[in-house]
Amino acid sequence: xxxxxxxxxxxxxxxxxxSEHPVAFAAAFLAFFFFSLIFLSAVGATPDPITDTSSxxxxxxxxxxxxxxxxxxxxxxxxxxVAKDVGxxxxxxxxxxxxxxxxxxxxxxxxxxxPTSAPLGVNGTVLIxxxxxxxxxxxxxxxxxxxxxQDLKTGQIISVYSGTTEYRYSVTGVRVADSTDSADNQIxxxxxxxxxxLVTCDSFAATSNRFIVTADFVGAYALAQ
Length: 225
Hints:
This protein has helices at 14-20, 22-42, 100-106; strands at residues 80-83, 88-93, 111-113, 124-130, 157-161, 165-177, 194-200, 210-222.
């Protein structure tokens, strides 16, 4: 019987072959890459280019608006304030007069952005007033505009909306201002960063105990248009 010597299997491996013919391998790889790129371009399957993510780029809906300076070109007026944790969702009025009688009248329309406090989007304190009442029956619902803000907890989110942007703030504190203590009843308006202060009052013209909620700015988000 004739014997046959079995063919030896080539166990040299791909790595050895590449190391012995690096130029041929590189040329083959580049040719494959460019042919693949041409094909993908022809069928529209290449990835989109990276867009500008600088502060001048137009934010997409829901994207955080990054601000690189303290005075953006478009400070905005608040039109709505929402604190989901306490069921707050009210309209904000933006009067131009600081006359006490005028402000009292504006409080019948919703919450009021105090005219000389900061607008949204710039360093300063956005100060918003609203009535609150815990009587079982009230004549007008605006008496209950800011009911429940004293139940806000540290870290909970308050959203203040302009016509184009949601500005989010994180609660840092809630306190009762003593109407008999002139120092305690004052409302500080720091301007070294972006802040929000919500205040309840029985009447803007009257002196009474009031709840004061303070919050720090955490981000701004473009609204869907």
